[in-house]
Amino acid sequence: MPAEPQDDRAPVSLLKGRIIAGFSLALVIALSAYLLMSASRAGNQAFASLWFLAVFPAYLCALICYVGDPAGTRSRNFYVSVPPILVGLVIFGSAAFLGEGIICLVMLSPIWLIFGLIGAFSVRRMRRRRDDAASFHASLLFLPLLAGSVESQIPVPHDTVTLTRSVIVNASPAEIWPYAVSNAHIGNDEGRWTFSQSVLGLPRPRATVLDRPGVGGVRTAYWSESIDFQERVTAWQPGRRLAWRFAFTNSSLQHHTDEHIAPDGPFLKIDTGDYRLTPLPDGTTRLTLTTNYVAMTHVNLYARWWGELLLGDIQDNVLAVVKQRAEARHEAR
Questions:
Q1: What is the pTM of this model?
Q2: Percent of the chain beyond pLDDT 90?
Q3: Do 74 and 171 share a domain, yes or no?
């Protein structure tokens, strides 16, 4: 009698089941950690920790790979695919069910992908070389907890960052000064295209109103439809320099951008800013906008990269508005 064909669907089905189980377990752990951090006294500070941004995604991807490849025989492609799939699921779930803002999710994605790959390939390498399975299981379980405990004992650095953008304006300092001081009714067509505002949806300025000229005056900035904050004037040199200290008297900016990132919070403080107007020999003027902020996390290097992009785009757009209005005034003379 001819031999009956072997049914190899069962092991394939089992392996698929293990992969699904691995992702399901990782998502449950991720949701549990999110809820615990949201309810903890540390609040939003935990979301800017090295543990959450680096150790946690490495652990989740390592766990998925461990559960999904029990024999350690899957190809390299399997390990490469785990982090982007996990990050995609986390982004979709966070946006659809947890109401997370686009800024938080975009900032999270690159670093989770990088450390997810590190976690995945660390497991692949360790499993092929392990001699003691019990030690390996224990390290997979306790190393993330240990990393979190160690980080909590490390002092948080406070790095002052200066961000500067400038533009050449075909107008005199006297013509530019009124628009550096205040602007009313900024239209949707004013300013310039930026990735942060045109793609990610960061708010754009709508008006800036000064209550009185001189040091001690308060500029109130109105952004988007429902955002306002203050810039309290600390230096007033007409045609030369205007400086201020930021005052965020409400949470409107945080609610519009990201609940975890307050402009005057535990790990970010947007502090001061100024305009400088420098006349050039050809009759134009260099207009420079500077913003100073303090980063207070264990991932300040990563945070500074995003600050350069996001705040830099905001500065470029504000400068474009002033440039367009001042040059229009100059040409109308």
A1: 0.86
A2: 66
A3: no
Round to whole Å and give the CA distance between 312 and 194: 9
State whether 167 and 131 are in the same domain. no
Distance between CA atoms of residues 232 and 210, nearest Å: 9
How is the beta sheet containing 205-210 ordered, strand by strand? 159-169, 285-295, 268-279, 241-247, 227-237, 218-223, 205-210
Backbone angles phi, psi at 105, to 5 degrees: -70, -40
Query: At residue 107, what is the residue type?
Result: M
Collapsing DSSP states into helix, strand and coil, what is residue 277? strand
Q: Tokens 């005056």 identify what position?
A: 217
What's the domain count of the chain? 2
Q: Render pLDDT for 4-34 as a digit per residue (tens, 0 to 9).
A: 444 444 466 766 888 999 999 999 999 999 9
b/e 193-209 (16+ beta carbons within 10 angstroms → b): ebebbeebebbbbbebe
Residue 2 lies in a domain: no
Q: What is the pLDDT of residue 7?
A: 40
- Residue span of the structural domain in which 220 resides: 159-332
Listed in sequence order, the DSSP H helices in 153-216 are 173-181
CB count, 10 Å around CB of 73?
A: 9
Residues in a beta bridge with 276: 241, 288
- HSE (side-chain half, CA atoms, 13 Å) at 222: 13
Contact 165, 316 (CB under 8 A): yes
On the question of pLDDT at 260 being above 90, the answer is no
List the end-to-end C-alpha distance of the chain, in Å, as a whole number: 103
258/197 Cα distance (integer angstroms): 14
Q: Do 25 and 164 belong together in one domain?
A: no
The beta strand positions in 40-114, using DSSP E, are none
